[in-house]
Amino acid sequence: MTALPDAHGPKRSWWKSNQQRVTPWLFLAPGLFMFAVYVIWPIAASFRFSFYDWDGLSPMEWVGWGNYVELWSDRNFIISLKNNIVWLVLYMLAVPAGLGLAIFLNQTVTGIRLYKSLFFFPFVISQVVVGLMFAWFYAPNFGLFFQLTEWLTGTGTAVLANPEYATYGIIVAGLWPQIAYCMILYLTGLNNVAPDQIEAARLDGAKGLKMLWYVVLPQLRPATFIAVVVTVIGALRSFDLVSIMTNGGPFGQTRVLSFYMYERALSEYGFRMGYGAAIAVVLFLIMMVFITGFVWKMVRDERGH
Amino acid sequence: MFPRPIAQRSAVAQWSYSAMLPIALILWLLPLLGIALTSIKPSSDLASGNYFGLPSYLAFENYWSVLFEYDLWKYIRNSFVVTIPTVVGAVALSCLTGFALGIYRFKGNLLIFFMFVAGNFVPFQILMVPVRDLTLDLGIYDTPQALILFHIAFQTGFCTLFMRNFIAALPRELIEAARVEGVADWQIFWYIVLPLMKPAIAALSVLIFTFVWNDFFWATVLTTSADTRPVTAGLSSLNGQWVAAWHLVSAGSIVAALPPVAMFFLMQKHFIAGLTLGAVK
Description:
The complex is a heterodimer. Chain A is mainly α. Chain A contains 14 helices and two strands, in the order H-E-E-H-H-H-H-H-H-H-H-H-H-H-H-H. In chain A, a hairpin with a 7-residue loop joins strand 1 (52-53) and strand 2. By secondary structure, chain B is an all-alpha fold. Chain B has a single domain, classed as MetI-like (MetI-like fold), CATH 1.10.3720.10. Chain B has helices at residues 11-28, 30-39, 43-47, 61-69, 72-103, 109-119, 125-137, 144-168, 172-180, 185-196, 198-213, 217-222, 231-241, 246-266, 268-275. The longest helix of chain B is centred in the first third of the chain and has 32 residues, at 72-103. The radius of gyration of chain B is 24 Å and the shape is flat. Chains A and B meet through helix 1, helix 5, helix 6, helix 8 and helix 9 of A and helix 1, helix 2, helix 5, helix 6 and helix 7 of B.
């Protein structure tokens, strides 16, 4: 019994002297562990898998750069890559459209709060449901859009059955919630624009677009940054809508990398995990270009504080 | 205020603005309104070509049929089983990580913080094969735990970004004062910081609820059976069965969308505060 305090003595003093150093790591440990297991390690593992031929069950076979070489002659990969670029470019329309909508709604008439929430509504709905709604909207014969084109041109267009237009049809569906998201970012931003600067500019005769460009937009920079980040990421992540609305068709013309990867690695089309991993690595590297840019800017802002 | 308040403009401008508002809203929500209308039409209406007129009677049986004949209620239950523990887990973990990164200055702090931030942006596909493999190895493939564990881990990235910034903005004197008094770190966390984090916890909870409820990709990758699949994946497979039975597709869509929509309208302030974090300096 008398030995007990002695045994505790050195331990306690170690804790005392290192407490400040160790404590943050104790708080970090559970979150860091989960994140390492489910996010960091899988990224590394996917890079490794991409150099193997593997169906998920039988032993893995090393093929070196084989999967990547195959990608370049895979027509479907090129189509997916091209579609990803189309997505990325057109998705950016969500940023100015969201700004326009926010400016339209930034008023103080009665009931405007309800209007703002209802305009924001599409963002809350699952993309699966958004996809189904637009599939109904585009449906041949009775779909609203079909009828509209029939009325305008004489022949109706079934967007999702048309290999040329289907991707654009899906992108429009994706823009719907994305514009809502950008709108809410800009509404918050507009709420915080310094009123005295606006008044001063107004006294100097600035109005309309000039006011927007030179006085308001510079103050909305943080909102614009986040809107661009979420829109770029959203465009490259597009999977749900493609899967629900066309399942990659017609004739594989609406595939994007995220969807093609899934098809190759997991659907009845494939179980080529190594090849799928190679597609994922390409998508990851494309996204890393943007992620690095975003994080670099955030680090700079953080240091600037 | 920008643009100039409409109240300062002419009567004509005010009148046309209040006329434009509802028109714009109806156009904006047209796909939603169409689906809502279709969901209460009997199938006979659709068969006879009544797509846009009023329903011949309110066919709430569509909802009944979707929920109980096609067992959509099961998928809804599965979604709750996955979503609620995920919200609790991700918020709890990020309270801890946010506290560590927001309060302590130590080497590697910024590095770890930006690792969480960057991880939050990666494409799901780069994680897919290894995570599916790990799930199989753990023996939890096609169980709610498979989704819960993954979602907790992944959402911790976004939640940490949120919590850390929130905690870093708290008055430091409060914590310094407690330190001087000799209060232990875990007590500072539990009795001083945690009560102040209530608004952040509320905001994150609604956001994570919506994100996880609406997840479709992981639901299809990690679950297969009707007893575990969340409603997004369930709706997608039912949609295959319903081939263009739009009254059922519509009713199913509305039901699947309802919980996050209700969450949004009940907790609107928190939801938007969470979503627009960082949109203002």
